């Protein structure tokens, strides 16, 4: 698709870069990486032909400019680059909470596609929510992320808040539950090593089970026999709707924070 610029190689930027290198979704020789410090993922890309912090004139043919910096710093970080970007470069934002209209204005009216990926893109097993006002920008986002993630397109940008809360934040919720599950196993007599290994392996096993289109209720029923051990645990877990309420509160809080960041 031509030159792709990645600005910022933090946790998410590194994950995206690792996924591209793993799958060949972006040819390393077409990559320009802008980073203020040395990063392992960037150095791996350099070894394959990517350019790191070249003269800004190199940005003239950019087809896609991926913003991987923190939301509070994107405008300051981009100001010096604007005169050098191609007028038809598509701005690809992976920042939570910053509206497409705001980004487009900051980039002198350039087309924007917003994407909320999970860090699983590093293993080409991520999830990426995509929204764009223009079909051409949406196609650029799909081309960049479909090889490293399951892509879900939204018709309404306002739904990005909920998508961020469910998918972008979701892995941390699952990890927190896995940590609590391990701790509960320790309390019931498992060694810390055994409890953590069992909890982590169970998370991987459960993830494998959701491949395909089988309904979530059916997946639960496959494990929880009526009157059995698993059902007893599920009844305790969601006593008086405690689990449902806790998850709803987590998503609501994340939506509220994303909305706050958007101004």
Automatic annotation (TrEMBL):
Transmembrane segments: none annotated. Keywords: Amino-acid biosynthesis, Cytoplasm, NADP, Oxidoreductase, Proline biosynthesis. It comes from the Bacteria. It catalyses: L-proline + NAD(+) = (S)-1-pyrroline-5-carboxylate + NADH + 2 H(+); L-proline + NADP(+) = (S)-1-pyrroline-5-carboxylate + NADPH + 2 H(+). Catalyzes the reduction of 1-pyrroline-5-carboxylate (PCA) to L-proline. Its EC number is 1.5.1.2. Residues 157-261 form the Pyrroline-5-carboxylate reductase dimerisation domain. Belongs to the pyrroline-5-carboxylate reductase family. This is Pyrroline-5-carboxylate reductase. Residues 6-97 form the Pyrroline-5-carboxylate reductase catalytic N-terminal domain. It is an enzyme of class 1 (oxidoreductase).
């Amino acid at each position: 698709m031509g030159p792709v610029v990645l600005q910022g190689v933090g946790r998410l930027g590194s994950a995206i870069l690792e996924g591209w290198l793993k799958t060949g979704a972006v040819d390393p020789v077409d990559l320009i990486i802008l980073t203020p410090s040395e990063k392992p993922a960037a150095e791996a890309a350099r070894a394959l032909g990517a350019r790191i912090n070249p003269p800004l004139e190199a940005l003239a043919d950019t087809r896609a400019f991926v913003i991987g910096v923190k939301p509070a710093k994107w405008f300051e970080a981009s100001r010096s680059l604007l005169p050098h970007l191609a007028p038809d470069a598509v701005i690809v934002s992976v920042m939570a909470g910053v509206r497409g209209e705001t980004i487009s204005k900051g980039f002198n009216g350039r087309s924007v596609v917003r994407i909320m990926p999970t860090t699983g893109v590093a293993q080409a097993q991520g999830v990426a929510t995509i929204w764009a006002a223009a079909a051409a920008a949406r196609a650029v986002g799909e081309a960049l992320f479909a090889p490293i993630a399951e892509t879900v397109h939204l018709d309404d940008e306002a739904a990005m808040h909920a998508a961020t809360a469910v998918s972008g934040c979701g892995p941390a919720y699952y990890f927190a539950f896995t940590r609590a599950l391990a701790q509960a196993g320790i309390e019931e007599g498992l060694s810390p090593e055994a409890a953590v290994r069992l909890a982590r392996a169970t998370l991987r096993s459960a993830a494998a089970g959701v491949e395909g289109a089988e309904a979530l209720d059916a997946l639960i029923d496959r494990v929880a026999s009526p009157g059995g051990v698993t059902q007893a645990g599920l009844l305790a877990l969601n006593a008086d709707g405690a689990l449902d309420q806790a998850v709803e509160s987590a998503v609501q809080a994340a939506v509220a924070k994303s909305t706050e960041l958007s101004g």
